[in-house]
Specification:
The protein is mainly alpha-helical. It is globular and about 50 Å long. Helix 1 packs antiparallel against helix 5 and helix 1 packs antiparallel against helix 7. It starts with 44 loop residues before the first helix and ends in a 10-residue tail after the last helix. The protein contains 16 helices and no strands. The chain has a single domain, classed as Growth Hormone, Chain: A, CATH 1.20.1250.
Length: 428
């Protein structure tokens, strides 16, 4: 998984949204009925893209080392399967509450880069105590603090990238791809390191990547700034949660992404328990990321033509197939033949959600909307799924993936019943 998906196309101006228009010092008039011109690339664009890409590399290197291998590290520190599930769920629950609130503050101030830099430093500081902790009780507090600070970094960076794409005519997906590539390198390299040196190495790699992110954050360009802030008295979270279309999108994305809970938390433990090496596990994870990169790089036009409803159904269907296979087999060939479905189960689902935000949420609410997607799609639902996965994995092992297939099926039903088909524009 590479959180906060990407749409490779330059975002289009929002049309037809029911959200209030926020004040903007960059508002320009267009002739009635004329198509607004896309932003032109400026000389600054050549510097903006590499600075965003550098931060993506840092923050996704953290994710690539942490997501697949942190359960192994927790196991080495004396936690059983249920306790691992609860520790991961604690961090998810915290981010569910904290991320939208922090992002709303960033929207209201217009100083999104300052918030990113501060949170990057706090994330590194909050992770430091893990090195001295052993056992479930001792690990609860640092898990809480890390869940408070780190998860907000990706949606804030995604938000700045969306604004940069709007203002400078850049392609969001091409900047975001550097994060996917960093995740890919980290997941393979750390898998090899764990094979050679044991799971304790995970802590040092994650801490080093967090420090890199803290150093890279001040270099991220400030896009949008105070030119895109909510009007006085407007509350971004309340305003967004009153939009029925947005709530439907968040609900479907949340359920389908929650079906990945067992994969993110216990696939490494499950596969290594059946004799698959950590190096091979790293390559299996990498396969999914490569497929995701391909989708984000070349699938923008295809995804735009599909529309949110069909993308959600495609993602949910791929998730059902994927979890059925994982529940039924630990054969390395079978796993390698199906793990590319991550591009659809995660990637297509997130493209549907992120595309809705880009088209229908005004810039002044963009950080808050991005954080709501993160908090609800990989927050509330993911926390419940992860906690449930810990209980089911302790009892049924790989049978936990049958439950994930059932969750993904529910996502497909919700999409089918609540997300309307894409409306084609009618001739004037």
């Amino acid at each position: 998984m590479v959180h906060a998906g990407s749409e490779a196309a330059t975002p289009r101006p929002a049309t037809g949204h029911t959200l209030p228009r926020a004040r903007s010092r960059r508002h320009t008039r267009t002739a009635r009925g004329a198509r607004p011109a896309l932003p032109r690339r400026t000389g600054d664009s050549a510097l903006i893209a590499p600075r965003l890409a550098l931060y993506y590399v840092a923050v996704f290197a953290v994710l690539g080392a942490w997501l697949p291998y942190w359960p192994k590290w927790l196991e080495a520190r004396g936690c059983d399967d249920r306790q691992i599930g609860w520790l991961l769920a604690v961090a998810i629950c915290v981010r569910t509450v904290a991320t939208p609130w922090i992002a709303a503050r960033a929207d209201r101030s217009g100083r999104r880069r300052r918030a990113l830099a501060l949170l990057s430093a706090l994330a590194a500081a909050s992770f430091l105590p893990f090195g001295a902790m052993h056992g479930f009780a001792a690990l609860l507090v640092p898990s809480f603090l890390f869940g408070l600070f780190y998860p907000t970094l990706i949606p804030l960076c995604d938000n700045l990238t969306v604004l940069a794409a709007r203002e400078h005519g850049l392609r969001y997906g091409r900047m975001r791809l550097w994060g996917s590539l960093a995740f890919l390198v980290a997941v393979v390299a750390v898998g090899r390191l764990v094979d050679v040196r044991g799971p304790e190495i995970v802590y040092g790699v994650v801490l080093g990547a967090l420090c890199f992110a803290a150093l890279a954050a001040p270099l991220v360009p400030e896009c949008g700034g105070r030119g895109h802030v909510p009007a006085p008295g407007e509350r971004p979270i309340r305003t967004l949660l009153r939009d029925p279309a947005l709530l439907r999108v968040l609900a479907v994305a949340g359920v389908v992404q929650a079906s990945h809970g067992a994969y993110y938390s216990f696939s490494t433990l499950h596969w290594t328990a059946h004799g698959i090496s950590e190096t091979t596990v790293g390559w299996l994870w990498a396969e999914g990321v490569v497929a995701e990169i391909v989708l984000f790089a070349v699938g923008a036009g295809w995804a735009d033509r599909m529309g949110a409803r069909r993308l959600f159904l495609l993602g949910a269907g791929a998730a059902v197939l994927r979890w059925v296979v994982l529940a039924s087999s630990v054969d390395q060939g079978v796993l390698a033949a199906t793990n590319w479905l991550h591009a659809l189960s995660f990637g297509a689902t997130h493209l549907a959600a992120i595309g809705h935000l880009q088209r229908h949420v005004p810039p002044a609410f963009s950080a808050t909307a991005q954080s709501l997607l993160s908090a609800l799609s990989t927050g509330v639902a993911m926390a419940l799924s992860t906690a449930l996965s810990g209980v089911l994995f302790a009892r049924f092992g790989g049978g936990v993936f049958w439950a994930m297939a059932a969750i993904a099926s529910c996502g497909a039903v919700i999409a089918l019943r609540t997300v309307p088909p894409r409306q084609r524009p009618t001739p004037a």
